[in-house]
Design a protein that fits this description.
7-stranded mixed sheet, elongated
């Protein structure tokens, strides 16, 4: 820095001046710290040096020169941020100290100070001689001090001027002291010599000691500041103290006294005593602080003169400051003082070697020096002994002393060292200020190894007030403030918890509480808080303790709340919302950090609160409720919302509030239409009603012992009270809310509220089993049962369509309306489950606290935990089976019958969770065991089996087979939704090597391959399927045809290639990703395969908002825009039902998602049913678990075949119904009406056509679409399953054999006997039979027969089984199925339709001819073989036109490739119905069946009965009644032809030719035969056949038949 300064000086000054300035600057900055210089700019350093150089050029000798200013560039050429002080004066001691003292007195902070000495020679006028050397002294030079100081910036010129004058005055005082110092020292020496001379009134020792003291004083132990002399004069018998100012030296010379003469008697007695006392040397303090050297109160050493009589006649006063060595030197070396100490020891009379003697010496050794000088022996003795008696105990002692002139009070305070701090010292100081109102207080603190700390206060008293001293009062007050808060805490601890525990806790917490806490709270409060903190210390799992209380002085709605938290401070943003939701307004908060002795930290948060909902709170009543509630919210066991206001206002516990909150959440899910916040406000607005609602719940489900009648009566009483209270409810919506609560509580059947976990604690979740039938205004359809699960962590719902129901549980992301999602799914599940034993069920849950950190693992862990809670909650309210007996759940009051069947499955988000559910079921001993959830590790892996995709592919194959395309041998174009990593999409796109996947998309990518090579792309799709977590990005792009690619859905736009334009018929050059997907969905392709998630097709009449899939609103298309020939719905909800219908009416082929992907649920049901059986076998000890698992897994392939066969048959049934419906729409309409009238069907809910739409369909010759028929077939099967579960069906040995068809053949054979004991045997039989009837006979079969025959469903079923097996329906049906892709589908369907008609008529025959329940086994044995015989010989037995029709149809089918036996049977199906009558006639006539057959067909031909039957069949039916009449006509004709046959054969043996028999008969019945022939001629000549004509003709035929029956029987 100095180098740079020199350079600048050289630049700005001529050489001579520059040399001087460089020499001066070197000297000037020689004492300046280098770091301060470096921090300043060189310009400012230069300016300061130049300024000072100019400042010192002129100074008057003997006078100080001071400048105080604020340098700036404009006025001074340099600047400083601070005010600058420059001083030049003769160099002498104390200059810098004294200047600094004065600045400190003005509380001016010093920022820089440096000093140098200049050996200056000046002219008489004071001008500096610059030609002389400054660094060496000479005889003519004077050493001058130059001082440079920077202080806080002050711009007040008056202040700067005043400071200048003060500094000049201080420097003058210093000059005066220093100048007279030698003279004062000489006076002191002389006084000592005089004192040493023996006086008659003072002994020699005292004189010598006084002399020694004066010598000690001048020996560098006293800084002399002033000297004066006084004398005592007597005038007129009055004594005066006279001061002789001529002898003043030092400061006394500079500062003259106000009075030089005063009467002795006017002085205070103490002062008089001090002046006239015989002490040769006395000590006192000055009342004015020194401005020289140290800012202390100077000491006076008074040396007295005596006359011969020993009276004081005068004296001299030396004023100054004891040097620092005095305060560290042993007092035993100080003359006079040592004698005082000896005097104290003499009074104490302790042996020098004793403990007390040594301790006294120690006390005196460290005693404050000023006190040793000022105190007399007696006072010292008294004080020292008192200190000695403390005996190192933690006590507080106070000692006061007033000086002789009453200018000062000295206070010695001994306090425990461990509690001493600035705060304590300040408190003691405040006591002294209050007692004495001093002008000034200074203090000094002494610490040693002692347990006590000593504080010495020196008070400068105000002479204008009464300074009477009461030492005891002052001491007591100081003890009170020093007694410490910690001491009080110690006493309170011992009082509260006992001495031993109290001492332990005291040592742990004695220094733990910060000053802020101690100021705010008393020791007793701390003791209570310590107990809370000890709870945290004793329980490592406990993170928080709390205290809810009210201060005595506070209003009744004002409260305090303390939170105790280990280690870390609590964020207020987390705490305050909890308190506000409890109805509290936070007025203030103070955190306190408690640092325990063991290093632990505990934070105490003290909240000042006000309750906002009431003016008064009973703190005693709500304390524990509040603390429990806060803890529950904080720990996540309760939610933080407005319902919590009921804790304080309604005095409800958090679990009771959880009941109300749970029902509110359920209201939200069932679309109550009133917000949750409004519900909470309502409950808080009517606190009494809220409490009554909780009481209603507890009365309905509480565990108190009472009869059902008592419980119902008590519930009714509370309900009546609630209804009465509603009169006081103002708002309609509030009334609705409360009524809804009452309704929901009454609709609740069971709850787990009172159950406890394995630790005996309340469960963290609630489950309510509800009866939706008792809940008004809820979304349709209503399930039979519903379980709602609520907790702060998870919410969920499980909907069941019946007692035996199953369906998957999905992890939903729709927190606001997951029930709506589940309801839509359960609706689909209901119809999907038509093929299996259980009816539809579905569940879903939402995880409400998913982690934001931790990645996928943390996300999945939380989802699994929520799933486990959900499963447990479902089982909590479900009955169990133990050894076949129903065991209700513990601590659950049931308001419904036994209900033990609960089965779940995987769904979206829970694909891998089945093992988790099964583990819970097994651990709980649930009777389903690991059959509770299908698809676990010991379960059928749907993805590995590909069962869902294969099932949907069955639908796709049927659609294309109807269109003449074989998907397994012919290339076809496909648009896909999904990716190869998915189960349904991936498996589906590997089910044919001829798939040409032209486009596909998922949520990330769009895959486009305009002209794919099916052979090349199939292996690549297979590779992606086997690659874990693959995406379209992993597809080998080299295999994509020209113009294709893989595009991101996040792209701004996508370029459309020429090939894409051709393939998808796009005109634009660029499309946004969503628009490209739209074009793909509308593309003219063969198949759209949905294997993804989302809804992509709706009807043109639907809004996107109706669909419930907002994410895909931007790309969804209408059904009439889809040009794909077929849609395969492997995934759920890809198309809305209205979209399917619109697509179907537009010529598209599709069923529904629940039909296409039913394979998954069917497979799961097989899994469950097999496990139920095998588990029972295992429980009986006939199989080990390992063996059971082996047997079970070995059935995988067989189960897959059963499932696919079910899919095949169901889609076949829909296809046949689609064909049939166009001809007989009225039957389907009547079926829908019947279901509606029974409350089993809501047409609008299922999107089935209204009457107006049906009229339009009839006009356009359209029937129901495939999707509509899919719904109807599912309803039909579901209804039949329920109605067939009757003993007459399930306990019939013949029918019950159908149960084995639900199991793999190997299993059914090996475990035939256990199968008969299957716990779901009745349901399985009913299910299998219902599917069998509908799949073979069609949707309207039972309804049609019921209407026409009046028979019950069970009678129809028994008759059907008889007819089915009589005509070997299954055998011939299988033969038809075997012709897939061999013959035209229409030919297959024609043959099936003929078989259906045959069995339907045969069923009706059995119903009409067996008025009591059909004996199935006997009837089948009676008819089957004979039917086979008749069917085999139709070509021989048919006559005339019937034979010609049969032959033509037979030949046609043979040409089409139908095997001969099937062609023959199917061609004659229309005639085979007669076989039943023929066989019956053979038995009645006791004739050979063959002969009877010939006679039957012969008489038919002879009487033109075949033509007549054709006329009956051709009758148009405009109503149901006409259709029933036509059925009756056919039955009558059959009966009459059979009677005619019997009559003809009567009286003829088997050898008689048929022609002869007919001729004989005709001869006998000539009149009646003639009438019939005339009737026929009239009928044949009529233009239109009418019902009346047929009825009359049948009457004529009846007469002929009855007459014929009178013939004798054949021999």
């Amino acid at each position: 820095m100095l180098t740079a300064l020199h350079t600048l000086i050289d630049e700005r000054n001529e050489a001579t001046q520059a040399t001087l300035l460089k020499q001066f600057s070197d000297l000037y900055y020689s004492g300046a710290p280098q770091d301060e210089l470096l921090a300043r700019s060189v310009d400012d350093v230069y300016g300061a040096a130049l300024s000072c150089w100019q400042f010192i050029q002129q100074r008057e000798a003997g006078s100080p020169k001071v400048r105080v200013f604020n340098p700036d560039y404009e006025n001074h050429g340099w600047q400083s941020m601070h005010t600058v002080i420059e001083v030049v004066f003769e160099d002498m001691p104390f200059l810098v100290d004294s200047v600094r003292m004065q600045l400190n007195a003005r509380q001016m902070s010093l920022h820089a100070i440096h000093y140098c000495a200049l050996n200056a020679e000046r002219s008489k006028g004071g001008k500096l001689n610059t030609s002389k050397a400054w660094n060496q002294a000479s005889k003519t030079s004077v050493s001058e001090a130059i001082i440079y100081i920077e202080v806080d910036h002050h711009s007040d010129t008056e202040l700067l001027d005043a400071l200048t004058q003060e500094l000049i005055a201080v420097l003058s005082e210093v000059n005066s002291c220093v100048r007279d110092f030698p003279a004062i020292v000489a006076k002191a020496k002389a006084a000592g010599v005089d004192l040493g001379k023996t006086s008659g009134h003072h002994d020699k020792a005292e004189c010598a000691e006084s002399d020694a003291f004066m010598q000690w004083l001048v020996n560098n132990h006293f800084t002399f500041l002033a000297y004066d002399e006084f004398s005592i004069e007597t005038e007129k018998k009055e004594r005066f103290v006279v001061r002789d100012s001529a002898n003043d030296l030092g400061i006394f010379k500079y500062n003259t006294a106000t009075r030089n003469r005063i009467k002795l008697e006017e002085l205070e007695p103490e002062i008089q005593d001090f002046i006239t006392s015989p002490n040769m040397v006395s000590f006192m303090k000055s009342g004015t602080r020194s401005r020289v050297h140290r800012p202390a109160y100077p000491d006076y050493v008074v040396v007295k003169r005596f006359d011969k009589s020993g009276n004081v006649v005068g004296g001299m006063r030396f004023m100054g400051l004891y040097t620092s060595i005095v305060y560290i030197e042993t007092p035993n070396n100080i003359p006079l003082i040592r004698e005082k100490l000896n005097g104290v020891r003499a009074l104490a009379k302790f042996e020098a070697w004793s403990h007390s003697g040594k301790e006294l010496n120690r006390i005196l050794e460290v005693y404050p020096r000023d006190e040793l000088f000022q105190s007399d022996v007696n006072h010292l003795y008294k004080t020292a002994i008192s200190i000695l008696n403390i005996q190192e105990r933690r006590q507080t002692r106070v000692y006061l002393r007033k000086d002789s002139y009453s200018k000062f009070v000295s206070c010695l305070a001994y306090t425990p060292r461990d509690i001493y701090n600035t705060e304590l010292r300040y408190k003691m100081e405040q006591v002294l200020r209050q007692e004495f109102e001093p002008l000034d207080i200074e203090f000094n603190t002494y610490f040693s190894e002692s347990v006590l700390a000593r504080t010495h206060f020196m008070l400068r008293l105000n002479p204008d007030r009464d300074n009477t001293l009461d030492e005891e009062i002052v001491a007591r007050k100081i003890r009170q403030v020093v007694r410490s808060w910690t001491d009080d805490m110690h006493d309170a601890l011992i009082e509260q918890v006992g001495e031993e525990k109290g001492n332990v806790q005291f040592h742990e917490y004695r220094a733990a509480f910060p000053a802020g806490y101690r100021e705010s709270f008393g020791a007793r409060t701390a003791v209570a808080d310590i107990q809370h903190m000890e709870q945290l210390r004793g329980d490592s799992a406990k993170e928080m303790a709390m205290s809810f209380y009210r201060e005595l002085e506070e209003d009744e709605n004002e409260l305090r709340f303390k939170l105790f938290h280990s280690e870390t401070i609590l964020p207020l943003s987390d705490v305050i919302p909890v308190l506000e939701n409890l109805g509290l307004r936070v007025l203030g908060e103070h955190p306190y950090e408690i640092q325990c002795a063991d290093g632990r930290r505990i934070w105490i948060h003290n909240f000042m609160l006000r309750y906002t909902l009431s003016d008064k709170i009973n703190i005693g009543a709500v304390k524990h409720l509040f603390q429990d509630a806060f803890s529950a919210v904080w720990q996540g066991r309760a939610e933080n919302d407005g319902f919590n206001r009921l804790v304080l206002g309604g005095q409800l516990g958090w679990k009771d509030i959880a009941i109300l909150r749970a029902y509110a959440r359920y209201m939200k899910q069932i679309r109550f239409g009133i917000s949750e916040s409004y519900i909470a406000d309502t409950l808080c607005g009517y606190i009494g009603i809220s409490a009554q609602l909780v009481k209603l719940f507890h009365q309905r489900f509480g565990l108190e012992e009472q009869t059902v009648e008592q419980r119902e009566a008590n519930v009714a009483k509370i309900e009546e009270s609630l209804i009465a209270d509603l009169d006081n409810v103002d708002q309609l919506n509030e009334d609705r809310t409360i009524r809804r609560y009452i309704e929901l509580i009454k609709a609740t059947l069971r709850t787990n509220f009172y159950q406890q976990d394995e630790n005996g604690c309340d469960k963290s979740y609630l489950s309510f089993k509800l009866n939706p039938a008792n809940i008004s205004d809820m979304p349709l359809p209503r399930p039979m049962f519903e379980i709602f699960v609520y907790s702060p962590r998870v919410e969920g719902v499980h909907l069941r369509g019946g007692k035996v129901a199953r369906g998957g549980l999905r992890w939903s992301d729709r927190s606001d309306d997951f029930r709506t999602e589940v309801l839509g799914l359960v609706k689909a599940q209901q119809v999907k489950n038509a093929v299996i034993v259980p009816v539809g069920a579905k569940g879903g849950f939402v995880a409400k606290c998913l982690p934001k950190d931790g990645g996928r693992d943390a996300f999945m862990a939380e989802g699994i935990a929520c799933y486990q809670t959900f499963i447990s909650a479902l089982l909590d309210v479900t009955d169990n089976l133990v050894e076949g007996n129903v065991v209700p759940p513990e601590r659950v009051i049931r308001h419904d019958p036994d209900d033990p069947y609960l089965v779940v499955a995987a769904d979206k988000g829970t694909a891998t969770f089945s093992d988790i559910a099964n583990e819970i079921a097994v651990n709980r001993g649930f009777w389903m065991g690991d059959g509770f959830a299908s698809g676990g590790s010991i379960g059928y892996d749907h993805k590995k089996m590909g069962i869902t995709a294969k099932g949907a592919w069955v639908s796709v194959q049927r659609h294309f087979r109807e269109q003449g395309l074989n998907t397994q041998s012919t290339d076809f174009s496909v648009v896909g939704i999904g990716d190869m990593a998915g189960d349904v999409f991936g498996n589906g796109m590997l089910l044919s090597e001829h798939i040409c996947l032209v486009a596909a998309f998922n949520h990330m990518h769009i895959f486009v391959d305009p002209n794919p090579d099916s052979a090349a792309t199939f292996p690549e799709r297979k590779r992606l399927f086997e690659l874990p977590r693959s995406s379209w990005e992993d597809f080998d792009k080299s295999l994509i045809s020209t113009g294709g690619g893989i595009f991101s859905r996040s792209a701004k736009r996508i370029a459309i290639s020429a090939e894409m334009k051709v393939r998808f018929e796009i005109k634009e050059d660029y499309l946004a990703p969503n628009d490209l997907i739209k074009a793909i969905l509308k593309a003219p392709v063969d198949l759209i395969w949905n294997g993804g998630i989302g809804t992509y097709i709706k009807s043109s009449d639907e809004r996107h908002s109706n669909v419930g899939d907002k994410a895909n609103d931007g790309l969804r298309v209408n059904g009439n825009e889809v040009r794909a020939k077929v849609i395969g719905e492997g995934g759920n909800l890809g198309v809305t039902q209205l979209g399917r219908i619109e697509y179907g009416l537009n010529g598209g082929a599709s069923y529904t998602d629940f039909i296409d992907n039913a394979g998954g649920v069917d497979c799961s049901d097989h899994e469950v049913n097999i496990k139920i059986m095998l588990n029972e076998i295992m429980d009986n000890g006939d199989l080990t678990r390992k063996q059971r698992n082996e047997v079970f897994m070995a059935q995988t392939e067989a189960v897959g075949k059963l499932v696919l066969n079910n899919n095949y048959r169901q889609t076949q049934a829909i296809a046949l119904a689609y064909r049939d419906c166009k001809l007989r729409l009225d039957e389907y309409v009547r079926l829908m009406r019947d279901y509606e009238s029974q409350g089993k069907l809501n047409r609008s809910l299922e999107f089935l056509p209204s009457e107006d739409v049906l009229l339009d369909r009839r006009a356009q010759n359209q029937g129901l679409t495939r999707p509509e028929l899919a719904v109807l077939i599912s309803y039909t099967k579901a209804d039949l399953k329920e109605q067939l579960n009757r003993p007459s069906i399930t306990e019939d040995d013949y029918i019950s054999a159908i149960a084995s068809t639900a199991f793999p053949a190997e299993l059914a054979t090996r475990f035939a006997e256990p199968l008969t004991r299957h716990r779901l045997r009745r349901e399985i039989i009913a299910t299998q039979l219902a599917n069998d009837m509908v799949n073979y006979m069609g949707i309207t079969f039972v309804s049609r027969l019921g209407d026409s025959s009046g028979a019950t469903v069970t009678d129809i079923a028994r008759a059907y089984v008889t007819a089915r097996d009589t005509f070997s329906l299954a055998e011939y049906w299988s033969k038809i199925n075997a012709l897939d892709y061999s013959v035209d589908t229409h030919i297959q369907e024609d043959m099936m339709a003929e078989l259906m008609r045959l069995v339907r008529r045969a069923t009706r025959w059995f119903l009409r001819n067996r008025r009591v329940s059909v004996a199935i086994t006997a009837e089948v044995e009676q008819f089957r073989d004979a039917v086979r015989h008749i069917a085999a010989h139709l070509g021989e037995t048919l006559k005339g036109g019937a034979l010609a029709r049969w032959q033509a149809l037979y030949d046609k089918r043979r040409e089409a490739g139908v095997p001969a036996d099937l062609a023959a049977f199917s061609a004659g199906a229309g005639e085979l119905y007669a076989a039943l009558g023929i066989i019956e006639a053979a038995q009645q006539s006791k004739c050979d069946v063959h002969n009877v057959t010939e006679a039957y067909f012969g008489i038919g031909e002879h009487l033109s009965l075949g033509w007549f039957l054709q006329q009956i069949n051709a009758l148009p039916t405009s109503s149901h009644w006409e259709a029933m009449a036509r059925e009756s006509f056919r039955d009558d004709l059959d009966w009459q032809q059979r009677s005619l046959t019997v009559g003809i054969l009567a009286g003829n043996d088997n050898q008689t030719e048929l022609s002869d028999a007919i001729a004989n008969w005709e001869e006998e019945q000539a009149v009646l035969v003639g009438r019939w022939q005339r009737m026929l001629n009239e009928l044949k000549s009529a233009d239109n056949m009418e019902f009346a004509m047929i009825a009359v003709a049948l009457r004529e035929l009846l007469d002929l038949a009855q007459a014929s029956r009178h013939q004798k029987n054949c021999n």
